[in-house]
Amino acid sequence: MAVTEQAPSEDLDLQSALSAGQVHLRGLLAGLTEDAARAPSALPGWTRGHLLTHIEGVARALARQARYALRGRLVEVYDGGRAARDAAIEAGHGRSAAQLAAAVGDALDEAEASWSAVGPGDWQRQVSYRDSTVRTAGLAWWRELEIHTADALLGTGPDRWPPQLCVHLVDFLAVRVPYGTELTLTAVDADRSWTLGRGEPVAVGGRLTDLAAWLAGRAPARPLTGDPLPELGSWP
């Protein structure tokens, strides 16, 4: 895989990025109604209640990765693993709009407390999440937060994703490029391009947010050039 410019993950002020995303989601929750809580999200088969319950759970799960890492301890991402995560979503999605908003708000409080406590020397501490580091877990929460805020369809979508997130997503999701394809992505509004994979050349162009949305399996706000687009592989 070749990339013309590396994603600026090391230069990213991750705490500020997380804070901005959390503040944005809080603002969207303020107007949540009962009808909105029961309405479909962008994820097939999930209402907003399902999606918000998932955000609540992943916020707490990744926050505790950081919290325990600072104590020198490793813990599971979810108590009880994936089965417990899925059960919590099924049990929680039918709560009232007020209960959902309050629960997500409490989870964001926990996330803010955990991530703000990470000091400059803590980011490389070990966590159980992907057998990796606090920084890797923080980047995962950033992705989950921003992508699922868009999936909630509460008046904001991938077109408001910050440029650094979009560049990070291209880097993180490069493994989705199908085998035997050399994919050249050109961001027409950001003077950036990437060449990902090897094989038959395919060129895809568009705005940076639209390229990132497509790689993340979300619908771009504006059409991309390069039809037909290659079928992407699974999420890493």
The CATH architecture assignment of the largest domain turns out to be: Up-down Bundle
Number of strands: 4
Instruction: Please give the count of helices.
Output: 8
**Proportion in β-strands:** 5-15%
CATH class descriptor name of the largest domain: Mainly Alpha
CATH superfamily of the largest domain: dinb family like domain
Average residue pLDDT: 94
> Radius of gyration, Cα only, in angstroms?
18 Å
Report helical residue fraction: 40-55%
Distance between the termini: 15 Å
Care to describe what's here?
The chain has 236 residues and is of the alpha+beta class. 47% of the residues lie in helices and 10% in strands. It has a 4-stranded mixed beta sheet. The longest helix is centred in the first third of the chain and has 22 residues. It is globular. The chain starts with a strand and ends in a 21-residue tail after the last helix.
